[in-house]
Amino acid sequence: MPETTVILDAAAMQRALMRIAHEIAERNENSAEVVLAGIPVGGDHLAKRLAKILSEIWRQPVPIGILDVSMHRDDLDRRAAPEVHPTVIPFDVTGKTVVLVDDVLFSGRTTRAAMDALNDFGRPKKIQLAVVIDRGHRELPIKADFVGKNVPTADNEKIRVKVVENDGVDEVVLERK
Amino acid sequence: MTWSRKHLLDIESLTVDEITTVLDTARAFKAVGERAIKKVPALRGKTVVNLFVEPSTRTRISFELAEQRLSADVINFSAEASSFKKGETLKDTARNLEALNADFIVIRHSASGAPHFLSRVLNASVINAGDGAHEHPTQALLDTFTILERKGKIAGLNITILGDILYSRVARSNIWALRKLGATVTLCGPATLVPKTFEQMGCRVTYDVDEAIRDADIINLLRIQHERQRQTMFPSINEYTQLFGLNKARLAKTKPDALIMHPGPVNRGVEIDSDIADSGRSLILEQVTNGLAVRMAVLFLVNGGKGPQEVAGD
Q: Mind listing the pLDDT tens digit for each residue in B292-312?
């Protein structure tokens, strides 16, 4: 059994999402331009949560999409084929500020793939990145705009962001092998 | 989600999990075909050779478009204009193609087992696009995908395959896939073309077409394969149409939500009435659309794990 430590419990996770949503609102004055795109598996539910909070702040619905990046990864022949999820972008991204939502920022390669994948749907005015956990170890020049918590990690550690929708519980745990 | 195969040679050796993985993956690829930009970079820099030693139009075009939409480089190699005419063996041809650093070989061959043979002598990934009367795995996967999309399930459905079963690789692959996924499969056609030995694959065999289609949820019609028949297996095409062709009178006695499939090419007026082929109950063109998505999914999956293995990061 891997050794696990809870980094964020349900209440702390909710506070982090609340803060991220307020930061998104603060950074983007024109609320009509903002759309969210969650990266599966972790980011799609988090995008829905953020959209709900943002729509309460702005008193208007915030469009959300699902952006699967597996076809755009740069390591496709170095591993077993990843699970592919349908991409659903039910709005035109051209001229919009797209906030990418992911659970964990690690090497930055998923984010790079997400930016490539987004190009197939149009030319956003801006792309921003929101993550619940930034665990370091970047391999590309990529930085998150909105971070729930910075967690310096070692290579043999793994961060798991659990959400009620998938795992029955909201929490973030650090697993050590 | 499990897939660790380098080749797709047949359905017989696939597990239920592996079949489900292809179908799930194909769903995502179908959505790619509905976008403004229908191309993804998943196979960028990879070379695919379509080695079609037996003539084919729709399967080759479907594979070729699937490869292009995955950004692969594509070489087409057909029997008519090739070194086979000059007497080169399949093994030598394939090794020459590999010497050009082909990463994938999609092969259609009149000899059963040709793809299996290539998979043993080559380093490239081999995909079976139809070998003799043995298997046509991507056809079975696209048929299964189409049924699943329209009926929401496979298990418990009654699926009738009607026509030339004996010479049909489509029938064999479909039987394997459908039986594994829990469907009840009924075979029907002239007794010479539907031997009772198919009961060993877990199918029901009947020669009464009205009985065969009465409770069917799906009726899959197969073409009479003139090119594979060395002797006449039934008296005449006209008689086949009378006895086994799907016409309006027969269709009226089926379940109202029974749907019609056909792998193509369709012989209008022989195995199927022309109006039925064009009706809302016909899935023939959906099969073509889904074939593209399924072939993209297969290429994407066999590409995984070809290089040095790394553990995926977040």
A: 999 999 999 999 855 444 444
Chain A's closest residue to B302, CA to CA, is A81
> Pick the residue with more confidence: B166 or B314?
B166
Identify the bridge partners of residue B274 per DSSP, sorted by sequence position. Answer: none
Domain total in chain A: 1
Contact of B312 with chain A, judged by CB distance below 8 Å, is answered with: yes
The DSSP code for B80 is T
Distance of CA A15 to the CA centre of its chain: 16
pTM of the model: 0.89
Interface of B with A in 46-65 (CB under 8 A): 46
DSSP 3-state helix, strand, coil percentages of chain B (rounded to 5)?
40, 15, 40
Q: Quick check: is A106 in a domain? A: yes
A175 found inside a domain: no
- Average pLDDT in the B170-180 region? 98
Chain A residues whose CB is inside 8 A of the B303 CB are 76-77, 81
Q: Which domains does chain B have, with CATH numbers?
A: 16-135+291-303 (3.40.50.1370), 137-288 (3.40.50.1370)
* CA–CA separation, B86 and A66 (whole Å): 53
Cβ separation A81–B40 shorter than 8 A: no
Report the range of poorest mean pLDDT among A45-59, A74-88, B49-63, B244-258: A74-88
A176 in any annotated domain: no
Instruction: Give the model's pLDDT for residue B227.
Output: 66
Q: What is the DSSP string of chain A?
A: --EEEEEE-HHHHHHHHHHHHHHHHHH-S-GGGEEEEEPTTTHHHHHHHHHHHHHHHHTS---EEE---GGG-S-GGGSSPPPP---B--S--TTSEEEEEEEEESSSHHHHHHHHHHHTT---SEEEEEEEEE----SSS---SEEEEE----TTEEEEEE-HHHHSS-EEEEEE-
Instruction: Establish whether this prediction's ipTM goes over 0.85.
Output: no
CB spacing of B305 vs A80 below 8 angstroms? yes
Establish if B252 touches chain A: CB-CB under 8 angstroms: no
